[in-house]
């Protein structure tokens, strides 16, 4: 393990999570900025966003890569709901959408209190069907990853879409630039990254909140900070370890917030997800490329 240059080991517990002989495989290159990987186990494929090229790409287990959707309306983050439908955050439309099984697109949210959203960034779905997403301004800062515009919302919020009524509610309003988010495996906590340090003198940190009745957040507190780069997207394994993107690779934090180790990647990492038949393959979107590496642990996301 110590001889594998892919790993920067900070805690002996990291050895139980990674494979010493594993290699980092580049599955595809040629994008401008990759984001939003989501695994479809029923189709044996990975989808991801190439935001500046305004397209979504698809990789299948036989190595084939194709365009899934173009134009994509500058889609960024993606996930699936418990029915297996694709949920996406569109910079271009400044909205959150759901792709139905027949391919039609349903708008879930595009405004709050009568004003347009900023540019929805990342999204997760609770087991009760509630859709939670972050809304920083990255997609309206220029025409590179969306359409340049002035924000209409006074703050950069985290929202919840009620599964029954479709009503949208701001659950957190004090982030500089909320970015990646994920529920703990038991859904008792929600973790949210603040990537505002790219433009402001604030920590490169992830905060954690208690989830109350599946609808509200309470007891905001610091969870961890990155020593290199800004936190973007992250996911959990079944043991509650948080795997997050960073500028030098993927950082793994224990449930108590300790940095266990890093998987070093030659490009700046934006996001990641677990996939494969056993959910033990980590798929990594990093600047121009998509990588994968097998692990000893398994991802906690559904379906």
Question: Please, could you describe this protein's structure?
Answer:
This is SMP-30/gluconolactonase/LRE family protein. By secondary structure, the chain is an all-beta fold. The chain has a single domain, classed as Neuraminidase (6 Propeller). It contains no helices and 27 strands. The strands form 7 sheets. Strands 1-24-23-22-21 form a 5-stranded antiparallel β-sheet, with no helix packed on it. Strands 2-27-26-25 form a 4-stranded antiparallel β-sheet, with no helix packed on it. A 4-stranded antiparallel β-sheet has the order 3-4-5-6, with no helix packed on it. A hairpin with a 4-residue loop joins strand 5 and strand 6.
CATH topology: Neuraminidase
The helix content is under 10%
Total DSSP helices? 0
Sheet/helix structural class: mainly beta
Strand order of the largest sheet: 1-24-23-22-21
Estimated radius of gyration: 18 Å
Which class in CATH terms?
Mainly Beta
Main beta-sheet strand count, sense and barrel state: 5 strands, antiparallel
Order of helices and strands: EEEEEEEEEEEEEEEEEEEEEEEEEEE
Determine the N-to-C terminus distance.
32 Å
The CATH homologous superfamily corresponds to TolB, C-terminal domain
Roughly what is the average pLDDT, rounded to an integer?
Answer: 96
Q: What's the domain count?
A: 1
Quaternary arrangement of the chains shown?
Answer: single chain
Low-confidence stretches: none
Q: Please give the CATH architecture.
A: 6 Propeller
The number of E-state strands comes to: 27
Strand content: over 45%
